[in-house]
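Annex B, item 7. Sequence and structure tokens for protein A, then protein B.
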Amino acid sequence: MTELSATHFLLLSAALFIIGMVGVLTRRNILVIFMCIELMLNAVNVSLIGFAWELHQLTGQVFALFVIAIAAAEAVVGLGIVMALTRRADTVDIDELRQLRE
């Protein structure tokens, strides 16, 4: 059985980040876009923890905790904005929300 290395963590992190990036670039539902941003932040967490694993230090894990806290704050603010826009425009579609600027 092979031992885990930083390469395994980075491959998983890259796959998660690419899936999140494709979701942000292709989706029109603002809730799905926020979920994809959260997926990208979790990909960063996986890479930070992978480097901490490889270097036998806790620094990466501490940074991952900060990223989790920032992601939670972003989720709260983002969902608040989505709720306000939904009440005003009665939709969560990005293309229809762009029409509010005009």
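Protein B:
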Amino acid sequence: MNTTTASTGLQSLSISQRIIAGSLAILLGLTLLVGTGFAGDFRLHNGAHDTRHAMGFPCH
């Protein structure tokens, strides 16, 4: 019986790589939040309106 586990191809990330990935994720999230918060198009603005107010993000 073969008891070896299948390799997923994923490697463990170092601390610096985790910090970089986390920082990029936060930057992307803030960009999307601010981008929809101050969007000129009413459809983009209204699409996230209630969520922004629930989180305390002022949009107008």
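Comment on protein B: The longest helix spans residues 15-37.
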